[in-house]
Amino acid sequence: MLNPSQQEFSHLGSPRDLRARPLRDLRISILDRCNFRCSYCMPKESLCGKHSFLPADELLSDEEIERIVRAFTSVGATKIRLTGGEPLLRPGLPALVKRIAAISGVHDLSMTTNGVLLPRLAVDLADAGLDRITISLDSLDESVFSLMTGGKASARQVLEGIAAAEAAGFQQLKINCVVKRGTNDHTVMDMVRHFRGSGHVLRLIEYLDVGNSNDWQKGQVVAGHEWLRRIHHHWPLKPLKYQQIGETAQRYAFEDGEGEIGLINSITQPFCGYCSRARVTADGLLYTCLFASQGTALKPLLGKADGNTDLEALIHKTWSNRDDRYSETRHLVPGRDKGQEMYRMGG
Ligand code: SAM
Ligand code: SF4
Ligand code: SF4
Predict the structure, then answer these.
(1) What are phi and psi of 174, to 5 degrees?
(2) Out of 102, 132, 134, 230, which could bridge 174 as a Cys pair, Cβ 3.0 to 4.6 Å?
């Protein structure tokens, strides 16, 4: 109901994948390290020592990231999201943001972050040309927050990050809340109450079976429609039309005018049919699905001074051959390899 029909893709530029989906968005992981240890993404127990993260000399440089973004914009991507790992940990981040913001094909430059370093960086990121920020916050209850995120920081610090982003001029922040039944679901209504009327948009995310280390169980997922019913009971909601093709969240407005919320129902209502997102890891592997286990190496082409045309051709070809729709088919192949970890792939 809230998403466009596939025919609506027809006015957009090429390339199309095997299911006629255009390439519109690039999520680029700029660092796989993180200062959190979220139980659903990077559980402490899953990291086994110093080889857990990429060595610094394997990370894409700022120049390489800029070349990759340029190549993606040349083949149709207009929305770029910087992610990780924790992107705010990357040294010299404002300078990288400035380089990317200056690329003419980039119409929307955003970042997903856990927010704790925003008090230090928000103003510089705004000055560098970052358009939008999404901040992850799973609970306002400190003990629940700690359980979800591994005890490395507090919810209060994330709220300070949100305040810093507001003060730097970022408006209508998106607040991502992954819901795990039995861990933080009893605190979700407090999150709804807190962000209602704040000018920001809370998005409740169904816990995903991505990666092989979070020990995901189906019973830990709370279906988005449960929240719809519960929230609507307290504060009546009305559906909003999608804003952009390929958007992941179903949007609802509070009927009393106190803003909106989003539901990202990747498990119970997969949206592969409209998925226009490519992902590049911090070491330059291109993936065409969050759950893909094979990536395409872009780095070899970055070594060539005249490799830009080849890079565009490789991206074009990889996207044209894409047939991914993991979320629509997960129930058909139980026990299947669930690809890379989220912090490597870039959420
Ligand atoms: N570190 C940043 C952060 O947490 O916002 C950016 C990277 S993180 C991988 C991007 C997003 O993926 C976050 O909003 C996080 O909550 C979400 N995420 C990670 N693992 C997930 C999972 N198993 N299911 C659903 N969302 C997940
Ligand atoms: Fe770090 Fe983000 Fe993964 Fe949490 S979800 S461990 S903050 S990368
Ligand atoms: Fe896109 Fe893959 Fe997610 Fe489907 S499962 S929406 S194809 S990233």
Answers:
(1) -95, 135
(2) 134
Task: Convert the pLDDT of each residue in 204-234 to its tens digit.
Answer: 999 999 988 899 999 999 999 999 999 999 9
- Ligand 2 centre to CA of 136 (Å) is 9
User: ω before 4 within 30° of 0 (cis)?
Assistant: no
- Find the residues whose C-beta lies inside 6 A of ligand 3: 271-272, 275, 277, 289-291, 324-327
Q: Residue 96, SS3?
A: helix
Domains and CATH numbers, the chain: 23-345 (3.20.20.70)
- Residue 93's alpha-carbon distances to 79, 90, 126, 212, in angstroms, are 18, 6, 12, 30
> One-letter amino acid identity for 77?
A
Q: Are strands 174-179 and 277-280 parallel, antiparallel or unpaired?
A: unpaired
Closest residue CA from atom 2 of ligand 3: 289
Taking residues 189-194, what's their average pLDDT? 98
CA distance 37 to 152: 7
Ligand 1 centre distance from Cα of residue 116 (Å): 14
51-68 tens-digit pLDDT: 689 999 999 999 999 999
